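Journal club prep — side note

Before the paper discussion, L.F. wants everyone to see what a predicted structure for a comparable chain looks like in token form. Sequence:
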Amino acid sequence: QVQVTETGGGLVQAGGSLRLSCTVSMRTSASDTMGWFRQAPGKQREFVAEITWRSGITTYADSVKGRFTISRDNVQSTVYLQMNSLEPEDSAIYYCAASRGSTFAYWGQGTQVTVST
């Protein structure tokens, strides 16, 4: 069973930065993609960014392009989400997930990000 653990959330002022980390307990050939998602109160969970372990190919939601950067450290089995120019609308619980095949099957417990005005 793959375990996913996020760290790095917190409170930051608008315009500030935060870096989230996500570590997985194991990696398999079927779990090549790691993703970040977020869910704000009263809203559905939404995709933020993803990256593949093997090739490092990245994909971003339009709402975060140019502000957020996803990266990975294959040795540490850790994925990062660098968030810059944060806006109050970025406030949410951020979840990291590992894929199994074509779906995200393993999820972390989430970490709270709050951006104040």
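L.F.'s comment for the group: The mean pLDDT is 96. Keep this in mind when we get to the figures.
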